[in-house]
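Q: My labmate handed me this sequence with no annotations at all. I'd like to see what the chain might look like in three dimensions before we decide whether it's worth expressing. Could you predict it?
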Amino acid sequence: MRHLDWSSDGHLVFSDFSNGFPSLRVYSAADHQVVTFAMGAEARFSPDGKWIVYVGFGGIFVQPFPGPGGRIEISTGSGAQPTWGRDGGHIFYIAPDKKLMAVSFNPLDKSASAPQVLFQTRIISPNFIGTQYDVSSDGRFLINSVPSNYSSPLTLFTGWSAQLRR
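A: Here is what I predict for the chain of 166 residues:
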């Protein structure tokens, strides 16, 4: 069991690798049941707990929780470490070339914008252990990476929301 996330209503989504391939499972603290949600890994609940974003085969997907409804692809290829913005209207992920991508997501009409590059990161390598960045409610990013010149242990990117308005 790796890479887990709790919803505000007591559900735990986690990646199960016991069958040799990643499967997303959800545990309910209310009834202590575990159900399979989708094939994939690195899942995160939306801030309202009604959606789960995850890495599936061939891309980043978002799917209603607990359902009904199918998955919606939000990437234009593979990616890793999807994370929700605090407003629930943006999803971020790391592209294979280590660029931080942003997607606007509208849960009402179940649509997503085309991914936009925010900036290049120096994340070492995406993995199934955890997310190497986070975004604050005011739009700043905290990124755990190796600096190119090793002179600074922290990368802080501000003003990224201006990129979304273009």
